[in-house]
Amino acid sequence: MIGFIVGFTPIAVAGAFALWTRVDRRPEIINLLDASPTSKRHKRSKGFDAVVLHQTGFSRGNDPTRYRKVTAHFVILPDGKIIQLHPLSAKLWAADGFNNRSVSIEFAGNFKAATGKWWSPDKYGADEPTPAQIQAGRALLRMLKSIGIRHVFAHRQSSAKRGNDPGPQIWASVGEWAIRSLELDNGGPNYAIGGGSPIPDQWRRPTP
Ligand SMILES: [Zn+2]
Question: What's the CA-to-centroid distance between 55 and ligand 1, angstroms?
């Protein structure tokens, strides 16, 4: 079941455009909408204009069905597969104060902090984002920009409890890339809401 983003009709127009431009960059998306709990879906009071990047904090490998209960619109697996769990029209309790305006993307893995240390590696593993995951993340952001996304945020920016979400590696390689290459806005150096924290300088450097 491979398809374009579900729940957003103008994608057909964008898709036709992509056919003669850069179809090679359009990622395949595995549709798990029917396998995900609909109870997680709420009504947005306005349209979305932002993406929030996350890390799951665990890995269950590359079987898409093992992630179907994750609260996010998309999950990107270690092998680069992109799964869609909820329609973009749904507001999810995924990113605190950004929920109403955002689409959430989770990268599967327990990724280290800027200190070089992992959270409870004995229990949750010690993962590194894979090149396939990073490429898939970039391709997905490129596509979301084509349907109106203008901002990219880290969950850290809206949550006091998620200081390492998505962590320096995902942020530097996907978030900063999107600011540079897609010209997405991040709110500026000190931007945070609702008890969250700004992006630290160490996150803005390229992945070591
Ligand atoms: Zn998060």
Answer: 6
- Homologous superfamily, domain 2-204: Peptidoglycan recognition protein-like (3.40.80.10)
pLDDT at residue 115 tops 70: yes
Domain map (residue ranges) of the chain: 2-204
Distance in Å, CA 184 to ligand 1 centroid: 19
Q: Find the 192 Cα to ligand 1 centroid distance in Å.
A: 14
CB-proximal residues (5 Å) to ion ligand 1: 54, 155, 165
Segment 59-76 mean pLDDT: 98
Task: Give distance in angstroms: CA of 162 to centre of ligand 1.
Answer: 7
Q: Is a pLDDT exceeding 50 seen at residue 21?
A: no
CA 194 – ligand 1 centroid, Å: 14
CB atoms within 10 A of CB 120: 11
> Given the DSSP bridges, would you call strands 151-154 and 50-55 parallel, antiparallel or unpaired?
parallel
Q: What are the beta bridge partners of residue 84?
A: 31, 74
Predicted confidence at residue 26, as pLDDT, reads 79
The four Cα atoms 56, 59, 65, 71 give a dihedral, to 10 degrees, of -10
* pLDDT reported for residue 79: 98
User: Which of 128, 198, 139 lies closest to 170 in space, CA to CA?
Assistant: 128
ipTM for the whole complex: 0.99
